[in-house]
Protein backbone atom coordinates (compact mmCIF):
# COMPACT_ATOMS: atom_id res chain seq x y z
CA UNK A 1 0.00 0.00 0.00
CA UNK A 2 2.81 2.40 0.94
CA UNK A 3 4.55 1.67 -2.37
CA UNK A 4 1.39 2.66 -4.27
CA UNK A 5 1.21 5.94 -2.35
CA UNK A 6 4.90 6.72 -2.99
CA UNK A 7 4.49 5.94 -6.69
CA UNK A 8 1.64 8.44 -6.95
CA UNK A 9 -0.97 5.88 -7.96
CA UNK A 10 -2.92 6.64 -4.77
CA UNK A 11 -3.15 9.84 -2.75
CA UNK A 12 -1.72 10.19 0.77
CA UNK A 13 -5.22 10.40 2.19
CA UNK A 14 -5.71 6.76 1.30
CA UNK A 15 -3.49 5.79 4.24
CA UNK A 16 -5.89 6.80 6.97
CA UNK A 17 -5.62 5.93 10.65
CA UNK A 18 -5.82 2.19 11.00
CA UNK A 19 -6.26 1.81 7.26
CA UNK A 20 -10.00 2.07 7.63
CA UNK A 21 -11.31 -0.38 5.00
CA UNK A 22 -14.61 1.39 4.56
CA UNK A 23 -12.92 4.71 3.89
CA UNK A 24 -10.56 3.04 1.45
CA UNK A 25 -13.43 1.53 -0.50
CA UNK A 26 -15.17 4.90 -0.72
CA UNK A 27 -11.94 6.52 -1.85
CA UNK A 28 -11.35 3.95 -4.58
CA UNK A 29 -14.94 4.41 -5.73
CA UNK A 30 -14.46 8.18 -5.93
CA UNK A 31 -11.27 7.69 -7.92
CA UNK A 32 -12.82 5.47 -10.62
CA UNK A 33 -16.34 6.88 -10.63
CA UNK A 34 -15.84 10.13 -12.53
CA UNK A 35 -13.23 9.05 -15.09
CA UNK A 36 -14.51 5.53 -15.75
CA UNK A 37 -17.92 4.49 -14.40
CA UNK A 38 -19.90 7.62 -15.27
CA UNK A 39 -18.75 7.78 -18.93
CA UNK A 40 -19.35 4.06 -19.43
CA UNK A 41 -22.82 4.27 -17.94
CA UNK A 42 -23.66 7.30 -20.07
CA UNK A 43 -22.60 5.41 -23.19
CA UNK A 44 -24.71 2.44 -22.10
CA UNK A 45 -27.72 4.70 -21.60
CA UNK A 46 -27.32 6.23 -25.06
CA UNK A 47 -27.03 2.78 -26.66
CA UNK A 48 -30.08 1.53 -24.80
CA UNK A 49 -32.11 4.56 -25.81
CA UNK A 50 -31.12 4.08 -29.45
CA UNK A 51 -32.07 0.41 -29.38
CA UNK A 52 -35.31 1.23 -27.56
CA UNK A 53 -36.18 3.60 -30.39
CA UNK A 54 -35.45 0.84 -32.90
CA UNK A 55 -37.75 -1.51 -31.02
CA UNK A 56 -40.38 1.22 -30.72
CA UNK A 57 -40.31 1.91 -34.46
CA UNK A 58 -40.62 -1.81 -35.19
CA UNK A 59 -43.67 -2.12 -32.95
CA UNK A 60 -45.32 0.97 -34.43
CA UNK A 61 -44.59 -0.24 -37.97
CA UNK A 62 -46.21 -3.61 -37.29
CA UNK A 63 -49.22 -1.94 -35.69
CA UNK A 64 -49.69 0.27 -38.75
CA UNK A 65 -49.48 -2.76 -41.04
CA UNK A 66 -52.12 -4.60 -39.00
CA UNK A 67 -54.45 -1.59 -39.15
CA UNK A 68 -54.00 -1.32 -42.92
CA UNK A 69 -54.65 -5.05 -43.34
CA UNK A 70 -57.89 -4.69 -41.39
CA UNK A 71 -58.99 -1.48 -43.13
CA UNK A 72 -58.35 -2.69 -46.67
CA UNK A 73 -59.56 -6.21 -45.99
CA UNK A 74 -56.42 -7.99 -47.19
CA UNK A 75 -57.71 -11.39 -46.24
CA UNK A 76 -55.91 -14.51 -47.48
CA UNK A 77 -58.69 -15.43 -49.92
CA UNK A 78 -58.36 -11.97 -51.48
CA UNK A 79 -54.62 -12.33 -52.01
CA UNK A 80 -54.53 -15.96 -53.09
CA UNK A 81 -56.79 -18.28 -55.02
CA UNK A 82 -59.03 -20.42 -52.84
CA UNK A 83 -61.44 -23.00 -54.20
CA UNK A 84 -62.81 -25.63 -51.82
CA UNK A 85 -62.62 -29.26 -52.86
CA UNK A 86 -65.89 -30.91 -53.78
CA UNK A 87 -66.78 -34.55 -53.39
CA UNK A 88 -67.12 -36.26 -56.75
CA UNK A 89 -68.23 -39.88 -56.79
CA UNK A 90 -67.49 -40.31 -60.48
CA UNK A 91 -63.88 -39.18 -60.18
CA UNK A 92 -63.44 -41.06 -56.89
CA UNK A 93 -62.25 -37.86 -55.21
CA UNK A 94 -59.24 -37.67 -57.51
CA UNK A 95 -59.18 -33.89 -57.06
CA UNK A 96 -58.11 -34.37 -53.46
CA UNK A 97 -54.32 -34.52 -53.12
CA UNK A 98 -52.62 -37.14 -50.96
CA UNK A 99 -51.88 -35.80 -47.47
CA UNK A 100 -49.46 -36.98 -44.81
CA UNK A 101 -50.16 -36.15 -41.16
CA UNK A 102 -47.10 -36.32 -38.90
CA UNK A 103 -47.40 -36.43 -35.11
CA UNK A 104 -43.96 -36.50 -33.43
CA UNK A 105 -44.04 -37.80 -29.85
CA UNK A 106 -41.71 -38.30 -26.92
CA UNK A 107 -43.09 -39.86 -23.73
CA UNK A 108 -46.43 -38.08 -24.21
CA UNK A 109 -48.33 -40.10 -21.62
CA UNK A 110 -50.87 -37.40 -20.82
CA UNK A 111 -51.80 -36.11 -24.27
CA UNK A 112 -51.16 -38.77 -26.92
CA UNK A 113 -54.81 -39.80 -27.17
CA UNK A 114 -55.98 -36.25 -27.87
CA UNK A 115 -53.66 -35.59 -30.79
CA UNK A 116 -54.09 -39.01 -32.39
CA UNK A 117 -57.86 -38.84 -32.00
CA UNK A 118 -58.06 -35.35 -33.48
CA UNK A 119 -55.88 -36.33 -36.45
CA UNK A 120 -57.98 -39.42 -37.14
CA UNK A 121 -61.13 -37.29 -37.23
CA UNK A 122 -59.86 -34.92 -39.92
CA UNK A 123 -62.26 -34.61 -42.83
CA UNK A 124 -60.50 -35.98 -45.92
CA UNK A 125 -61.02 -38.97 -48.22
CA UNK A 126 -59.69 -41.98 -46.34
CA UNK A 127 -57.77 -43.28 -49.34
CA UNK A 128 -55.88 -39.98 -49.67
CA UNK A 129 -54.60 -39.43 -46.15
CA UNK A 130 -51.93 -41.17 -44.09
CA UNK A 131 -51.52 -40.48 -40.38
CA UNK A 132 -48.00 -41.10 -39.17
CA UNK A 133 -47.24 -41.28 -35.45
CA UNK A 134 -43.49 -40.79 -34.95
CA UNK A 135 -42.80 -42.15 -31.50
CA UNK A 136 -39.35 -41.47 -30.06
CA UNK A 137 -40.43 -42.39 -26.53
CA UNK A 138 -37.89 -43.93 -24.18
CA UNK A 139 -40.59 -45.10 -21.78
CA UNK A 140 -41.60 -48.57 -22.99
CA UNK A 141 -44.94 -48.37 -21.20
CA UNK A 142 -45.81 -45.17 -23.05
CA UNK A 143 -44.69 -46.76 -26.31
CA UNK A 144 -47.08 -49.64 -25.80
CA UNK A 145 -49.92 -47.26 -24.96
CA UNK A 146 -49.33 -45.17 -28.09
CA UNK A 147 -49.05 -48.25 -30.30
CA UNK A 148 -52.29 -49.65 -28.89
CA UNK A 149 -54.04 -46.32 -29.55
CA UNK A 150 -52.84 -46.39 -33.16
CA UNK A 151 -54.03 -49.97 -33.53
CA UNK A 152 -57.44 -49.00 -32.15
CA UNK A 153 -57.90 -46.39 -34.88
CA UNK A 154 -56.47 -48.71 -37.52
CA UNK A 155 -59.16 -51.24 -36.62
CA UNK A 156 -61.72 -48.53 -37.39
CA UNK A 157 -60.42 -48.24 -40.94
CA UNK A 158 -58.08 -45.26 -40.45
CA UNK A 159 -54.84 -45.35 -42.44
CA UNK A 160 -52.51 -44.78 -39.49
CA UNK A 161 -48.88 -45.86 -39.20
CA UNK A 162 -46.92 -46.23 -35.98
CA UNK A 163 -43.22 -45.53 -36.57
CA UNK A 164 -40.27 -45.87 -34.18
CA UNK A 165 -36.55 -45.34 -34.68
CA UNK A 166 -33.52 -47.13 -33.30
CA UNK A 167 -32.18 -43.88 -31.85
CA UNK A 168 -33.26 -40.26 -31.33
CA UNK A 169 -30.69 -38.74 -33.65
CA UNK A 170 -31.76 -35.23 -34.58
CA UNK A 171 -34.63 -35.33 -32.07
CA UNK A 172 -37.81 -33.89 -33.61
CA UNK A 173 -36.22 -32.90 -36.92
CA UNK A 174 -34.68 -36.36 -37.20
CA UNK A 175 -38.05 -38.00 -36.63
CA UNK A 176 -39.79 -35.78 -39.20
CA UNK A 177 -37.02 -36.37 -41.72
CA UNK A 178 -37.12 -40.12 -41.20
CA UNK A 179 -40.89 -40.12 -41.54
CA UNK A 180 -40.67 -38.72 -45.07
CA UNK A 181 -38.46 -41.57 -46.27
CA UNK A 182 -41.06 -44.33 -46.04
CA UNK A 183 -42.39 -45.84 -49.25
CA UNK A 184 -46.04 -45.10 -48.50
CA UNK A 185 -45.25 -41.36 -48.35
CA UNK A 186 -44.03 -41.05 -51.95
CA UNK A 187 -47.50 -40.16 -53.30
CA UNK A 188 -48.13 -37.46 -50.69
CA UNK A 189 -47.88 -33.86 -51.87
CA UNK A 190 -48.34 -32.13 -48.53
CA UNK A 191 -47.52 -32.84 -44.90
CA UNK A 192 -49.39 -31.43 -41.91
CA UNK A 193 -47.48 -31.46 -38.62
CA UNK A 194 -49.06 -31.50 -35.17
CA UNK A 195 -47.25 -31.79 -31.87
CA UNK A 196 -48.67 -34.25 -29.37
CA UNK A 197 -50.74 -31.66 -27.49
CA UNK A 198 -52.37 -30.12 -30.59
CA UNK A 199 -55.95 -30.87 -31.56
CA UNK A 200 -56.99 -29.67 -35.03
CA UNK A 201 -60.67 -29.33 -35.88
CA UNK A 202 -62.06 -31.78 -38.46
CA UNK A 203 -62.15 -29.10 -41.20
CA UNK A 204 -58.49 -28.12 -40.78
CA UNK A 205 -57.34 -29.67 -44.06
CA UNK A 206 -60.39 -28.45 -45.98
CA UNK A 207 -59.55 -24.87 -44.98
CA UNK A 208 -55.78 -25.00 -45.52
CA UNK A 209 -54.94 -27.39 -48.37
CA UNK A 210 -56.81 -25.42 -51.11
CA UNK A 211 -54.36 -22.54 -50.70
CA UNK A 212 -51.47 -24.89 -51.39
CA UNK A 213 -53.23 -26.78 -54.18
CA UNK A 214 -54.24 -23.67 -56.15
CA UNK A 215 -51.16 -21.51 -55.48
CA UNK A 216 -47.98 -23.39 -56.45
CA UNK A 217 -45.75 -20.64 -55.07
CA UNK A 218 -46.94 -21.23 -51.49
CA UNK A 219 -44.80 -23.62 -49.45
CA UNK A 220 -46.38 -23.30 -46.01
CA UNK A 221 -49.77 -22.57 -44.50
CA UNK A 222 -49.56 -21.80 -40.79
CA UNK A 223 -52.55 -21.85 -38.44
CA UNK A 224 -52.94 -19.94 -35.20
CA UNK A 225 -52.59 -21.56 -31.80
CA UNK A 226 -55.30 -21.21 -29.16
CA UNK A 227 -54.83 -22.52 -25.66
CA UNK A 228 -57.09 -24.88 -23.77
CA UNK A 229 -55.40 -24.20 -20.42
CA UNK A 230 -54.83 -20.44 -20.66
CA UNK A 231 -56.87 -19.89 -17.48
CA UNK A 232 -55.08 -22.56 -15.46
CA UNK A 233 -52.78 -20.16 -13.61
CA UNK A 234 -51.13 -16.77 -13.87
CA UNK A 235 -48.15 -18.27 -15.72
CA UNK A 236 -50.35 -19.53 -18.54
CA UNK A 237 -52.18 -16.19 -18.76
CA UNK A 238 -48.85 -14.40 -19.18
CA UNK A 239 -47.83 -16.80 -21.93
CA UNK A 240 -51.14 -16.30 -23.68
CA UNK A 241 -50.55 -12.54 -23.81
CA UNK A 242 -47.11 -12.94 -25.38
CA UNK A 243 -48.12 -15.62 -27.88
CA UNK A 244 -51.32 -13.85 -28.91
CA UNK A 245 -49.23 -10.84 -29.94
CA UNK A 246 -46.87 -13.12 -31.84
CA UNK A 247 -49.69 -14.64 -33.87
CA UNK A 248 -52.04 -11.68 -34.31
CA UNK A 249 -49.28 -9.20 -35.15
CA UNK A 250 -45.86 -10.67 -35.97
CA UNK A 251 -47.06 -13.62 -38.05
CA UNK A 252 -49.76 -11.58 -39.77
CA UNK A 253 -47.32 -8.79 -40.66
CA UNK A 254 -44.78 -11.24 -42.08
CA UNK A 255 -47.44 -13.00 -44.12
CA UNK A 256 -49.02 -9.79 -45.45
CA UNK A 257 -45.88 -7.85 -46.32
CA UNK A 258 -43.19 -10.37 -47.26
CA UNK A 259 -45.02 -13.72 -47.46
CA UNK A 260 -42.41 -14.84 -44.93
CA UNK A 261 -42.46 -15.71 -41.24
CA UNK A 262 -41.10 -18.39 -38.96
CA UNK A 263 -42.79 -21.77 -39.02
CA UNK A 264 -44.11 -22.46 -35.53
CA UNK A 265 -43.14 -26.12 -35.69
CA UNK A 266 -46.71 -27.40 -35.49
CA UNK A 267 -50.25 -26.66 -36.71
CA UNK A 268 -48.93 -26.01 -40.20
CA UNK A 269 -49.01 -27.67 -43.61
CA UNK A 270 -45.91 -27.88 -45.82
CA UNK A 271 -45.57 -28.62 -49.50
CA UNK A 272 -43.21 -31.61 -49.47
CA UNK A 273 -41.52 -30.40 -52.66
CA UNK A 274 -40.63 -27.15 -50.87
CA UNK A 275 -39.12 -29.06 -47.95
CA UNK A 276 -36.94 -31.03 -50.34
CA UNK A 277 -36.04 -27.93 -52.35
CA UNK A 278 -34.87 -26.17 -49.17
CA UNK A 279 -32.62 -29.07 -48.22
CA UNK A 280 -34.94 -30.97 -45.90
CA UNK A 281 -35.01 -31.05 -42.13
CA UNK A 282 -31.73 -30.22 -40.35
CA UNK A 283 -30.77 -30.72 -36.72
CA UNK A 284 -27.99 -28.12 -36.47
CA UNK A 285 -30.02 -25.98 -34.03
CA UNK A 286 -32.88 -26.46 -31.57
CA UNK A 287 -35.25 -24.55 -33.89
CA UNK A 288 -35.45 -26.91 -36.83
CA UNK A 289 -38.79 -25.35 -37.79
CA UNK A 290 -37.35 -21.85 -38.14
CA UNK A 291 -34.27 -23.23 -39.89
CA UNK A 292 -36.40 -24.86 -42.59
CA UNK A 293 -38.59 -21.77 -42.96
CA UNK A 294 -35.64 -19.42 -43.46
CA UNK A 295 -34.02 -21.72 -46.02
CA UNK A 296 -37.29 -22.14 -47.91
CA UNK A 297 -37.90 -18.39 -47.80
CA UNK A 298 -34.45 -17.76 -49.27
CA UNK A 299 -35.35 -20.13 -52.10
CA UNK A 300 -38.24 -17.83 -53.02
CA UNK A 301 -41.12 -19.83 -51.55
CA UNK A 302 -44.05 -17.94 -50.04
CA UNK A 303 -45.74 -18.54 -46.69
CA UNK A 304 -49.34 -17.87 -45.71
CA UNK A 305 -50.65 -17.32 -42.20
CA UNK A 306 -54.34 -18.03 -41.55
CA UNK A 307 -55.38 -16.21 -38.39
CA UNK A 308 -58.92 -17.56 -38.46
CA UNK A 309 -57.75 -21.18 -38.68
CA UNK A 310 -57.19 -22.08 -35.05
CA UNK A 311 -55.77 -25.21 -33.47
CA UNK A 312 -56.17 -26.01 -29.79
CA UNK A 313 -52.99 -26.64 -27.84
CA UNK A 314 -51.59 -26.67 -24.32
CA UNK A 315 -49.30 -24.15 -22.65
CA UNK A 316 -46.60 -25.35 -20.24
CA UNK A 317 -48.03 -24.70 -16.80
CA UNK A 318 -44.99 -25.55 -14.68
CA UNK A 319 -42.22 -23.01 -14.36
CA UNK A 320 -39.49 -25.54 -15.06
CA UNK A 321 -41.10 -26.66 -18.33
CA UNK A 322 -41.62 -23.04 -19.35
CA UNK A 323 -37.98 -22.16 -18.65
CA UNK A 324 -36.74 -25.06 -20.76
CA UNK A 325 -39.05 -24.04 -23.59
CA UNK A 326 -37.97 -20.40 -23.46
CA UNK A 327 -34.31 -21.40 -23.43
CA UNK A 328 -34.84 -23.37 -26.64
CA UNK A 329 -36.93 -20.62 -28.24
CA UNK A 330 -34.33 -17.93 -27.41
CA UNK A 331 -31.09 -19.84 -27.86
CA UNK A 332 -32.12 -21.53 -31.10
CA UNK A 333 -32.90 -18.40 -33.17
CA UNK A 334 -29.70 -16.68 -32.02
CA UNK A 335 -27.67 -19.76 -32.92
CA UNK A 336 -29.43 -20.03 -36.28
CA UNK A 337 -28.71 -16.35 -36.99
CA UNK A 338 -25.03 -16.98 -36.30
CA UNK A 339 -25.01 -19.87 -38.77
CA UNK A 340 -27.12 -18.31 -41.51
CA UNK A 341 -26.07 -14.65 -41.50
CA UNK A 342 -23.59 -14.92 -44.37
CA UNK A 343 -25.89 -17.29 -46.25
CA UNK A 344 -28.62 -14.65 -46.14
CA UNK A 345 -26.19 -11.93 -47.24
CA UNK A 346 -24.92 -13.96 -50.21
CA UNK A 347 -28.37 -15.09 -51.34
CA UNK A 348 -29.16 -14.11 -54.94
CA UNK A 349 -32.75 -15.35 -55.12
CA UNK A 350 -34.66 -12.89 -52.95
CA UNK A 351 -34.61 -9.09 -53.02
CA UNK A 352 -32.30 -7.04 -50.83
CA UNK A 353 -35.41 -5.64 -49.12
CA UNK A 354 -36.46 -9.10 -47.99
CA UNK A 355 -32.93 -9.88 -46.83
CA UNK A 356 -32.92 -6.71 -44.71
CA UNK A 357 -36.28 -7.73 -43.27
CA UNK A 358 -35.05 -11.21 -42.36
CA UNK A 359 -31.81 -9.97 -40.79
CA UNK A 360 -33.05 -6.81 -39.09
CA UNK A 361 -36.69 -7.36 -38.18
CA UNK A 362 -37.06 -11.12 -38.04
CA UNK A 363 -33.78 -12.01 -36.34
CA UNK A 364 -32.08 -9.02 -34.71
CA UNK A 365 -34.99 -6.99 -33.36
CA UNK A 366 -37.50 -9.70 -32.43
CA UNK A 367 -35.31 -12.68 -31.58
CA UNK A 368 -32.22 -11.12 -30.01
CA UNK A 369 -32.28 -7.38 -29.27
CA UNK A 370 -35.76 -7.36 -27.71
CA UNK A 371 -34.62 -9.75 -24.96
CA UNK A 372 -31.26 -8.12 -24.32
CA UNK A 373 -32.54 -4.54 -24.19
CA UNK A 374 -35.44 -5.43 -21.90
CA UNK A 375 -33.16 -6.95 -19.29
CA UNK A 376 -30.15 -4.67 -19.71
CA UNK A 377 -32.02 -1.36 -19.67
CA UNK A 378 -34.77 -1.95 -17.12
CA UNK A 379 -33.01 -4.37 -14.79
CA UNK A 380 -29.36 -3.28 -14.92
CA UNK A 381 -28.78 0.23 -16.25
CA UNK A 382 -31.87 1.97 -14.90
CA UNK A 383 -31.22 0.80 -11.31
CA UNK A 384 -27.51 1.64 -11.75
CA UNK A 385 -28.50 5.25 -12.47
CA UNK A 386 -29.91 5.43 -8.94
CA UNK A 387 -26.42 4.95 -7.54
CA UNK A 388 -24.86 7.46 -9.92
CA UNK A 389 -26.94 10.67 -10.04
CA UNK A 390 -24.60 12.16 -12.65
CA UNK A 391 -26.28 9.87 -15.19
CA UNK A 392 -29.82 10.84 -16.06
CA UNK A 393 -32.24 8.81 -18.14
CA UNK A 394 -34.78 10.96 -20.02
CA UNK A 395 -38.37 10.35 -19.08
CA UNK A 396 -39.34 9.52 -22.66
CA UNK A 397 -36.88 6.63 -22.63
CA UNK A 398 -37.62 5.36 -19.14
CA UNK A 399 -41.39 5.77 -19.18
CA UNK A 400 -43.12 6.84 -22.38
CA UNK A 401 -41.54 4.46 -24.90
CA UNK A 402 -41.86 1.32 -22.74
CA UNK A 403 -45.47 2.20 -21.89
CA UNK A 404 -46.40 2.57 -25.57
CA UNK A 405 -44.58 -0.65 -26.51
CA UNK A 406 -46.33 -2.49 -23.69
CA UNK A 407 -49.76 -1.22 -24.71
CA UNK A 408 -49.16 -2.28 -28.31
CA UNK A 409 -48.07 -5.73 -27.18
CA UNK A 410 -51.05 -6.14 -24.87
CA UNK A 411 -53.53 -5.23 -27.61
CA UNK A 412 -53.35 -8.82 -28.85
CA UNK A 413 -55.14 -10.09 -25.73
CA UNK A 414 -57.75 -7.49 -24.66
CA UNK A 415 -59.25 -9.81 -22.05
CA UNK A 416 -56.00 -9.70 -20.07
CA UNK A 417 -55.49 -5.93 -20.00
CA UNK A 418 -56.07 -5.93 -16.24
CA UNK A 419 -53.03 -8.20 -15.89
CA UNK A 420 -50.76 -5.79 -17.74
CA UNK A 421 -48.63 -4.89 -14.71
CA UNK A 422 -48.05 -8.55 -13.88
CA UNK A 423 -47.12 -9.21 -17.51
CA UNK A 424 -44.52 -6.40 -17.50
CA UNK A 425 -42.88 -7.74 -14.34
CA UNK A 426 -43.03 -11.30 -15.67
CA UNK A 427 -41.48 -10.39 -19.03
CA UNK A 428 -38.68 -8.44 -17.36
CA UNK A 429 -37.77 -11.46 -15.25
CA UNK A 430 -37.92 -13.82 -18.23
CA UNK A 431 -35.79 -11.36 -20.21
CA UNK A 432 -32.87 -12.41 -17.99
CA UNK A 433 -33.35 -16.06 -18.94
CA UNK A 434 -33.86 -15.22 -22.61
CA UNK A 435 -30.83 -12.91 -22.70
CA UNK A 436 -28.66 -15.63 -21.25
CA UNK A 437 -30.01 -18.14 -23.78
CA UNK A 438 -29.53 -15.71 -26.69
CA UNK A 439 -25.90 -15.12 -25.74
CA UNK A 440 -25.33 -18.87 -25.46
CA UNK A 441 -26.77 -19.27 -28.94
CA UNK A 442 -24.76 -16.41 -30.44
CA UNK A 443 -21.52 -17.67 -28.91
CA UNK A 444 -22.51 -21.32 -29.43
CA UNK A 445 -21.36 -22.40 -26.00
CA UNK A 446 -22.69 -24.50 -23.16
CA UNK A 447 -26.32 -25.47 -23.70
CA UNK A 448 -26.55 -24.16 -27.27
CA UNK A 449 -27.84 -27.48 -28.62
CA UNK A 450 -29.68 -28.69 -25.54
CA UNK A 451 -33.04 -30.21 -26.42
CA UNK A 452 -35.59 -30.73 -23.67
CA UNK A 453 -39.12 -31.70 -24.71
CA UNK A 454 -41.71 -29.37 -23.17
CA UNK A 455 -43.66 -31.25 -20.52
CA UNK A 456 -47.41 -31.49 -21.14
CA UNK A 457 -49.66 -32.23 -18.20
CA UNK A 458 -52.97 -32.69 -20.01
CA UNK A 459 -55.41 -33.64 -17.26
CA UNK A 460 -52.61 -34.71 -14.96
CA UNK A 461 -52.65 -31.55 -12.90
CA UNK A 462 -56.38 -31.83 -12.32
CA UNK A 463 -56.03 -35.49 -11.43
CA UNK A 464 -53.26 -34.87 -8.96
CA UNK A 465 -55.19 -32.04 -7.35
CA UNK A 466 -58.22 -34.27 -6.80
CA UNK A 467 -59.61 -33.92 -3.26
CA UNK A 468 -60.27 -37.66 -3.08
CA UNK A 469 -56.71 -38.32 -2.07
CA UNK A 470 -54.43 -35.94 -0.25
CA UNK A 471 -51.12 -36.02 -2.10
CA UNK A 472 -47.82 -36.03 -0.36
CA UNK A 473 -46.22 -32.69 0.05
CA UNK A 474 -43.54 -32.31 -2.63
CA UNK A 475 -40.02 -32.37 -1.33
CA UNK A 476 -38.16 -29.10 -1.60
CA UNK A 477 -35.24 -29.56 -3.96
CA UNK A 478 -32.85 -26.65 -3.65
CA UNK A 479 -31.32 -27.10 -7.09
CA UNK A 480 -34.58 -27.41 -8.99
CA UNK A 481 -36.57 -24.69 -7.22
CA UNK A 482 -34.07 -21.92 -6.55
CA UNK A 483 -32.68 -19.90 -9.45
CA UNK A 484 -29.66 -18.06 -8.13
CA UNK A 485 -29.29 -15.61 -11.01
CA UNK A 486 -32.84 -14.31 -10.52
CA UNK A 487 -32.25 -14.06 -6.77
CA UNK A 488 -29.03 -12.10 -7.33
CA UNK A 489 -30.82 -9.62 -9.60
CA UNK A 490 -33.58 -9.34 -7.01
CA UNK A 491 -31.03 -8.36 -4.37
CA UNK A 492 -29.45 -5.82 -6.74
CA UNK A 493 -32.80 -4.23 -7.55
CA UNK A 494 -33.81 -4.15 -3.90
CA UNK A 495 -30.55 -2.47 -2.91
CA UNK A 496 -30.93 0.06 -5.71
CA UNK A 497 -34.48 0.80 -4.61
CA UNK A 498 -33.40 1.36 -1.02
CA UNK A 499 -30.60 3.68 -2.11
CA UNK A 500 -32.91 5.64 -4.41
CA UNK A 501 -35.54 5.94 -1.67
CA UNK A 502 -32.96 7.20 0.83
CA UNK A 503 -30.71 9.42 -1.27
CA UNK A 504 -32.20 9.75 -4.75
CA UNK A 505 -34.94 11.84 -6.28
CA UNK A 506 -35.94 9.79 -9.34
CA UNK A 507 -38.78 7.80 -7.73
CA UNK A 508 -37.54 4.72 -9.56
CA UNK A 509 -37.67 2.94 -6.21
CA UNK A 510 -41.41 2.31 -6.67
CA UNK A 511 -40.78 0.22 -9.78
CA UNK A 512 -37.57 -1.30 -8.42
CA UNK A 513 -39.19 -2.59 -5.23
CA UNK A 514 -41.98 -4.27 -7.18
CA UNK A 515 -39.64 -5.69 -9.82
CA UNK A 516 -37.28 -7.04 -7.15
CA UNK A 517 -40.21 -8.89 -5.59
CA UNK A 518 -41.06 -10.40 -8.98
CA UNK A 519 -37.48 -11.64 -9.36
CA UNK A 520 -37.59 -13.01 -5.82
CA UNK A 521 -40.85 -14.91 -6.33
CA UNK A 522 -39.79 -16.39 -9.65
CA UNK A 523 -36.28 -17.01 -8.37
CA UNK A 524 -37.79 -19.17 -5.64
CA UNK A 525 -39.88 -21.02 -8.21
CA UNK A 526 -43.24 -19.96 -6.81
CA UNK A 527 -44.96 -19.45 -10.14
CA UNK A 528 -47.07 -21.70 -12.32
CA UNK A 529 -48.63 -25.03 -11.44
CA UNK A 530 -46.81 -27.06 -8.81
CA UNK A 531 -47.71 -30.70 -9.34
CA UNK A 532 -47.17 -32.76 -6.18
CA UNK A 533 -45.11 -35.88 -6.52
CA UNK A 534 -47.08 -39.04 -5.93
TrEMBL record:
Subcellular location: Golgi apparatus membrane
Keyword annotations from UniProtKB, A to Z: Cell wall biogenesis/degradation, Glycosyltransferase, Golgi apparatus, Membrane, Transferase, Transmembrane, Transmembrane helix
Gene3D superfamilies: Spore Coat Polysaccharide Biosynthesis Protein SpsA, Chain A
GO BP terms: cell wall organization
SUPFAM superfamilies: Nucleotide-diphospho-sugar transferases
An example Gene Ontology molecular-function term: mannan synthase activity
Enzyme Commission code: 2.4.1.32
Residues of the Glycosyltransferase 2-like domain: 190-382
GO cellular component terms, semicolon-separated: Golgi membrane
Ranges annotated as spanning the membrane: 43-69, 356-378, 398-426, 508-531
Family annotation (InterPro entries): Glyco_trans_2-like, Nucleotide-diphossugar_trans
One Pfam family this sequence matches: Glyco_trans_2_3
Catalyzed chemical reaction(s): GDP-mannose + (glucomannan)n = GDP + (glucomannan)n+1
Topology term for the membrane: Multi-pass membrane protein
PANTHER family on file: GLUCOMANNAN 4-BETA-MANNOSYLTRANSFERASE 2 (PTHR32044:SF17), GLUCOMANNAN 4-BETA-MANNOSYLTRANSFERASE 9 (PTHR32044)
Family: Belongs to the glycosyltransferase 2 family. Plant cellulose synthase-like A subfamily.
Protein name per Swiss-Prot or TrEMBL: glucomannan 4-beta-mannosyltransferase
Species the sequence originates in: Heracleum sosnowskyi
